[in-house]
Specification:
By secondary structure, this protein is α/β, with parallel strands linked by helices. It contains ten helices and 13 strands. The protein binds nicotinamide-adenine-dinucleotide (NAD).
Length: 308
C-alpha cells in the first residue's frame, strides 16, 4: 500500500482515478477547490480519501497533507478556447499551481510526480499521427501551459531528485464529465443529448476526427506509470480516429432515435484530424486501451439518462 496525493481529485478524470486508487488499497489525500469538481463525484470508493479543500495556487500545507509516495497533479483550468480570453488565469492556475506542487514535492521529499498533460501541446503540428517526437506547436495558452508544465517538471525533477512522468491525454470521455462546464466537449454534450432526447449543434461538416479515449483507460495509464517508467512523456489515446459524424451515428443507435441536428458554421482554425501514435506507451509501459468507442459511449449515455 502506498500513499498518494491527487490534486483535482473531484473532477471528471480525477474522481475515477481516486476511486481506483482506493479500490486497489492505497491511502489517498485529495486536494481540491471545487471550482469545477463536484462533491458528488466523491460519493463512491473515493469517499474514504482524506479531503483537503484548498486552492493549489496558494501552496500545499505539509501539516494538512502529510507524507506521500507520489503526487498525481490534475488540478487545472482546461479550456483552450477560454485560455485565449483569460491567459493570466491559465498561467496562474496551471503553472503557478504546478510550481506549488513541485515546492511540496521538494519539501516533503516526495519521490515521484505524475502530470496530466494534453495532446493539445501538438497544436498545429502537421504530422498525420502524433508521436512524442513530433514538434509541439501549441495553439492556445492552455496547451502552452501543459508543454511548459512538462518542462518545469523535468527541470525541477533533476534539481530536486524526484522522478516524473507526463501523460499527454487525447480526448477523454466517460461518466461524470460535467455538462454544465462552459466548455464541455463534444462527447459529453452529445452523450447527454442522446440520453435526454435533446437537439445538438453540429459545427462544420462533421468529417473532423478525434482520438477519443475512455476514462477508465486513462486510469489504467496512470497506474502503469505510478511507480516508474522508462520515459517521462507518453501519448495516451487509442490510435483510432472517430469522426464527429461516426460519433453521432453511434450515439443515435445507442439511444434508438435520430438527433435533431442544428447545422452551425465550422469553428475558425478547427483541426481536421487528430490521432495518437501510442507505440511508445505500448512498448514501454504495456499500455493498451481496452474499451471500444461503442462500449464507452454506451456507458456514458447510461450515466446521463434521467433517474427515477
Ligand atoms: N478531459 C480531457 O479530455 C483532458 C485531455 C487532456 C488533458 N486533460 C487534463 O486532465 C486533468 C483533469 O481534467 P478533467 O477533464 O478531469 O477536468 P475537470 O475540470 O473535471 O478536473 C479538474 C479538477 O481540478 C480542480 N481544480 C481546478 N483548479 C484548481 C485549483 N486552483 N486548486 C485546486 N483544484 C483545482 C477542479 O475543481 C476539478 O475538480 C486536467 O489537468 C486537464 O488539463 C484532460
Amino acid at each position: 500500500m502506498s500513499r498518494y496525493l491527487v490534486t483535482g481529485g473531484a473532477g471528471f478524470i480525477g474522481s475515477h482515478l481516486c476511486d481506483r486508487l482506493v479500490q486497489e488499497g492505497h491511502d489517498l489525500v485529495i486536494l481540491e477547490d471545487f471550482s469545477s469538481g463536484k462533491q458528488a463525484n466523491l460519493a463512491g470508493p473515493a469517499s474514504a480519501a482524506k479531503l483537503v479543500q484548498a486552492d493549489v495556487r496558494s501552496g500545499l500545507s505539509a501539516q494538512a497533507i502529510g507524507p506521500c509516495d507520489g503526487i498525481i497533479h490534475l488540478a487545472a483550468l482546461i479550456s483552450g478556447f477560454d485560455s485565449l480570453r483569460s491567459p493570466d488565469d491559465y498561467l496562474q492556475a496551471n503553472l503557478q499551481g504546478l510550481l506549488r506542487v513541485i515546492d511540496y514535492a521538494a519539501e516533503a521529499s516526495v519521490p515521484r510526480v505524475l502530470f496530466a498533460s494534453s495532446s493539445t501541446v501538438y497544436g498545429s503540428a502537421a504530422a498525420p499521427r502524433l508521436a512524442e517526437q513530433t514538434l509541439p506547436q501549441p495553439m492556445s495558452v492552455y496547451a502552452a501551459t501543459k508543454l511548459m508544465g512538462e518542462q518545469l517538471l523535468a527541470m525541477y525533477g533533476r534539481l530536486h531528485g524526484f522522478t516524473h512522468c507526463s501523460l499527454r491525454l487525447f480526448n477523454v470521455y466517460g461518466p461524470r464529465q460535467a455538462t454544465d462546464h462552459p466548455y464541455a466537449n463534444v462527447t459529453c454534450k452529445f452523450s447527454h443529448a442522446a440520453a435526454n432526447g435533446l437537439p445538438i449543434d453540429l459545427y462544420g461538416d462533421g468529417a473532423q476526427s478525434r482520438d477519443f479515449i475512455y476514462v477508465e483507460d486513462v486510469v489504467d495509464a496512470f497506474f502503469a506509470v505510478l511507480d516508474a517508467s522508462p520515459s517521462s512523456v507518453y501519448n495516451i489515446g487509442t490510435g483510432r480516429e472517430t469522426s464527429i459524424r461516426e460519433l453521432i451515428g453511434t450515439l443515435e443507435s445507442i439511444a434508438g432515435r435520430p438527433f435533431q441536428i442544428s447545422q452551425q458554421p465550422e469553428w475558425p482554425n478547427d483541426i481536421r484530424s487528430i490521432s495518437a501514435d501510442c507505440s511508445r506507451a505500448t512498448a514501454e509501459i504495456g499500455f493498451m486501451p481496452r474499451v471500444s468507442v461503442e462500449q464507452g459511449l454506451a456507458n456514458t449515455v447510461d450515466f446521463f439518462r434521467p433517474r427515477g
